[in-house]
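Subject: design request, 136 residues
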């Protein structure tokens, strides 16, 4: 595993959490929709009267998965923080924190650190090489 792959694991877990949160919101919207139709005709016998219960059960399962993923994310960020703290160069530390703990874009990092994008990518490569040497 490269240093970049190692440090990027938290971002992937964060993305997975966000997607599950979107799914939960979608299920919540579905569960709260009230589409009652009034008519003189009798209701059909095949109507699923427990559909809302099933949706709520799926939401609860998904929220449990999200909580487990959040625990994983916290552990990963703690582990990555430890790796970054062992880096002696403060610029490397800052860049790695912005990228792999705060998930900032290159443009945001460039503006925050006051360097050009080209210089940021050069620093990033150097920081990754330094981390890789320490991992080996």
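Subject: RE: design request

Done. Sequence follows.
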């Amino acid at each position: 595993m490269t240093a970049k792959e190692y440090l990027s694991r938290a971002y992937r877990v964060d993305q997975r959490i966000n997607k599950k949160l979107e799914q939960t919101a979608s299920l919540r919207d579905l569960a709260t929709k009230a589409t009652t139709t009034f008519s003189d005709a009798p209701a059909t016998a095949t109507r699923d009267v427990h559909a809302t219960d099933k949706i709520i059960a799926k939401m609860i399962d998904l929220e449990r998965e999200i909580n487990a993923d959040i625990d994983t994310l916290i552990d990963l960020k703690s582990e990555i923080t430890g790796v970054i703290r062992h880096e002696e160069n403060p610029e490397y530390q800052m860049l790695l924190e912005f990228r792999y703990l705060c998930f900032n874009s290159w443009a945001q990092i460039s503006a925050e650190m006051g360097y050009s994008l080209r210089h940021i990518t050069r620093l990033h490569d150097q920081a990754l090489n330094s981390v890789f040497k320490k991992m080996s």
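The mean pLDDT is 89.
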